[in-house]
Amino acid sequence: MNILYLTEEQIQFSGAMTRGGAIHVRRIVDGLRERNHQVELIDWNDHPERSYQHSLSPTLRFGLDPTRTALSAVQVGKRMEVDVILSKTRKTYLPGLIASQWLNVPHVAHIGTVPDSTTHGLIGRMNGISVSMRLRAPHDAYFVVGDSVRDVLRERGIADDKIFDVRNAVDTETFSPDKRNEEFPDQIGSALDQTEDEFRVGFIGGLYWYKGLEHLATAVKRCESDVSVVIAGDGPERDALESQFGDNAEFLGIVPYDEVPSVYRSLDTFVLPSYTETLSRVVLEAQSSGTPVIATSVGGIPEIVTDGENGLLCPPKDAECLAEAIDRLANDSSLRTRLATNGRQSVLEAWSWDDMLDRYEKFLEDVLN
Q1: 2-169+352-368 and 177-350: same fold?
Q2: DSSP 8-state class, residue 316
Q3: What SS3 class is residue 301?
Q4: What is the pLDDT of residues 122-162, one digit of tens each?
Q5: Residue ranges per domain, the chain?
Q6: The domain 177-350: what is its CATH number?
Q7: With CB atoms counted within 10 Å of each terminal CB, which end of the chain scores lower, N or C?
Q8: Superfamily grouping for domain 2-169+352-368
């Protein structure tokens, strides 16, 4: 297949990236090319690194850059005799659709999450309305990452036969319990020192209000066990969270992606207390690393975590449940081992990158047919 992939992310093919969306694009583009598909990429980037990477230097993200993306997609698509155009990010949905109609080929919109148009202030509502309008455009197909996104699209009138669940994926070799004996990188090693009696929980991700970390801060203070917290990531809530956690947490800031496996290896359990999630990449990474998981039962999390089998689930905004789950794992090593083993096995069975590439190939062929 000749596939043109559009994204507003800045994609690097050398070095480490931290954004999950950019990591996804690189893995999909490289993976499909390794399977002998012709894949060309248009991203918003000042420093392209590959001959098949047709980068546009960002100028004005509203109006101008999407227009430039549509024009570039038409030019590249003609040259490569494209079979299908796939748009990964919101500002490329309409440019990709316009180019596909000009070239008379199918267009696929990849939907990772759909923002709520009714909450989160004026800017949040405007963003939600804008995305909803883009989704209602006449795309030929939608690639989604889980049932929770599929259900939202159905509610918004998208025909079920246009929706394809590509799910999510994790590198099971990089995120592996076999690497637990490796030394920590010097940059974060001192921060990950741990006393013998200390039970360490951790979080990796953006520090935003909807991640629910204030409830984790409350939960840690209610725990009967000696608990410490490691938080990797940055965001607008960092100052407030540092105050709420006090001496109970070590904030690492943004950790390069190639060092993230070390953070999982340092944890006794991983906690994701979010109010909203799709198919969480960090939960899959923790499970793949052999680290027990505690998460909230929101969005696509129950598609990954079965309570009591390969992780523990709590309702959102329930600090008491989080505290009980942390204490339960801290005091039961056999439960930790069982959850870690089952979590790793569940990822190996359904959530590897090879599995995801298989789904991409099959669904793209379905769209073309």
Answers
A1: yes
A2: T
A3: helix
A4: 555 556 656 667 777 889 999 998 888 898 899 888 999 99
A5: 2-169+352-368, 177-350
A6: 3.40.50.2000
A7: C
A8: Glycogen Phosphorylase B; (3.40.50.2000)
- What predicted TM-score, i.e. pTM, was given to this entire model? 0.83
Q: What tens digit of pLDDT does each residue of 251-297 get?
A: 999 888 888 999 999 999 999 999 988 888 899 999 999 999 999 99
Sign of CA dihedral 157, 160, 164, 165: positive
Question: Going edge to edge, which strands form the sheet with 227-232?
Answer: 249-253, 227-232, 199-204, 269-272, 293-296, 312-314
- Rounded distance between C-alpha atoms, residue 154 and residue 220, angstroms: 39
Q: Which of 1, 3, 41 is nearest to 22 (CA)?
A: 41
- Give mean pLDDT, residues 96-119: 84
Cβ partners under 8 Å of residue 171, min gap 6: 27, 288, 353
Between vectors from CA 86 to CA 112 and to CA 71, what angle results, nearest 5°? Answer: 120
Q: What is the CA radius of gyration of the chain?
A: 21
The helix (H) or strand (E) run that includes residue 90 is: helix 90-103
